[in-house]
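debug: dumping io for the single-chain case to check the tokenizer round-trip. Nothing else runs in this session.
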Amino acid sequence: MEPLDEAWLKEVKQFLYSLDQPDTQARDYVHVHADRLAATVVLAPPAQTSRRCLELGSYMHIAPALKEFAGYAHVRAASLGPAGETATKVATSHGREVLRCDLDLFDVEHDPFPYTDEHFELVLACELLEHLRADPMHMFFEIYRVLEPDGRVLLTTPNCASLSSVEQCLWRSANPYTYSLYPDPRKPGRDEAASHIREYTPDELGKVLDAAGFLVEAFHTRAGRVVESKDVVEDLLMAYGFPVDLRGEQIYCIARKISHAARVRYPDFLYG
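debug: decoded output
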């Protein structure tokens, strides 16, 4: 995949920085994750048909940028919460309204998505898959259902086969996950859903999408954590014939819904 347009990334980042945030913590989040958020927007397929998209697990950063840069006139957002509840969310930039949309609450692993069949042109599930505890294929089957024919899903998730993960395991005898900490019960307001339950390799993610009825159109990874022994790790992988591509810390994947695809609800490699 071609490198991302740096000028475009910069423009999207500036838009993200301009979004009004409720507090310092929220502003800090945008600055820490601006590169990933901007890359997601730049990689999003531009609107072509219904111009309807859905962002699962939305923090209302990517959603307004999709309208601003990718041409989605009808943006819907979703987050974890009691099924059936909906809130109106407004995103502003320097006080100017840039998006007003509905945010639906439900559990992507258990609840039917509250949308009709073949409704959206694009569904995003960003930094969500690694947090799922029970039944990730439920989410993928529901994404498939609500996507229009040839609709696309855009996923981002940490890469368990990244250079830094390999370095963590081999050099430091440490956990390869990008984030493997339990929420500290001594800290008020801790996020119970913050821990990564399972991180995926690009190969595994491809298998998940194939089982759900999608054709992967693009895989892209980008660097995240500093890899102090990057050259040594790459040399070791190449010496033993292992691939060195798709070794960035962050996976970005675009896959297209295939009509009448053979689908597997419980793939063996994921369920035991």
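debug: round-trip ok. Residues 158 and 178 are 7 Å apart (CA to CA).
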